[in-house]
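Quick one:
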Amino acid sequence: MKKIILIAFALYSGVAFSNKVTIINSGFVFSPDSISLNLGDTLIFQLGSIHNAVEVSQTTWNLNGTSALPEGFSTPFTGGQITGLTAGMHYYVCTNHAFMGMKGRVYVNNVAGENINFNNKYFFAAFPNPTNSKISIQTNFKTDNLNSILTIYNITGEKIVYNQFLSDEIDFSAYPKGIYLLEIIADKKSYITKVIVE
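Output:
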């Protein structure tokens, strides 16, 4: 009876049980270097003594820079625990080794599970969504087959498709059910949307 009351209280009070996700360093790279979390999850960095993790802007990240994002997260050398990340994409680097490409990204899903448009003035979406077959990509920014690259990640941040030339349609019929992140690199900028495969 006590268990039932406790569960009912947790549901009524809006308490959510969070997951913990760990990122380590494998030499001079974060592993994994791209992950997806839900709001309320805890991010744990377990790093070597010469590595830290500091949140930076997307521009700084693209340039392998180290200027910390005001009010962004940071860990000391050897790592630490991060909680309270907001929905959207968070970019981070190791300040000692960003110039070598030691950097990563954390995508935090919002509560409603809606697609998040990281650059408000840009539109990037996939239709229909959810899907079990083909999707169409729609954007309001310039893309082309020669200069735009598409990468698809699964929910754990593993790259499923990398450096595929962009097309207007993607077939998800052979993909396992789950949540995927689509990233388009166009004009040296990153745009991301989420696709649910049912």
